[in-house]
């Protein structure tokens, strides 16, 4: 449980969410992450170490640079944060959700013109419909992650997908 909470807290920061996305498609050093995200090397290193210690990043290799050793990090995107309702405090969960929302706002500001899909839904559906929707969202995420390329690769476009799909609690039982 403590490990899962640590992962949730580590990912619950907009900058670290950006790093995880960046490191899905490429193995990068702290210096390269710093350049891509316009950060100081020290700031990038701090956040990368935190993500690594939480188990959200892997060291993909090391290389000698100017007499030192630079780690190359990657995000094993197949990792799914498996947190079961009661194991995480509402405060920890809220930190993560707020970080996602802040990152969504930043991405939206950077949006260009062109086709987009925006959806928001809170409704009641049959369980079979819910399972299909959940699977489609997971499939869309898998498709993007499987085909992610390093930043600024020729003939690619910079895209964003943020999805949070979950079963809502019963408002009646919440009042008891």
UniProtKB/TrEMBL annotation:
Keywords: DNA-binding, Transcription, Transcription regulation. InterPro entries: ArsR-like_HTH (IPR011991), HTH_ArsR_DNA-bd_dom (IPR001845), HTH_MetalResp_TranReg (IPR051081), WH-like_DNA-bd_sf (IPR036388), WH_DNA-bd_sf (IPR036390). SUPFAM superfamilies: Winged helix' DNA-binding domain (SSF46785). Residues 1-90 form the HTH arsR-type domain. It holds the Pfam family HTH_20. The keyword Lipoprotein does not apply. One of its GO terms (molecular function) is DNA-binding transcription factor activity. The keyword Phosphoprotein does not apply. PANTHER family: TRANSCRIPTIONAL REGULATOR, ARSR FAMILY, TRANSCRIPTIONAL REPRESSOR SDPR. This is DNA-binding transcriptional ArsR family regulator.
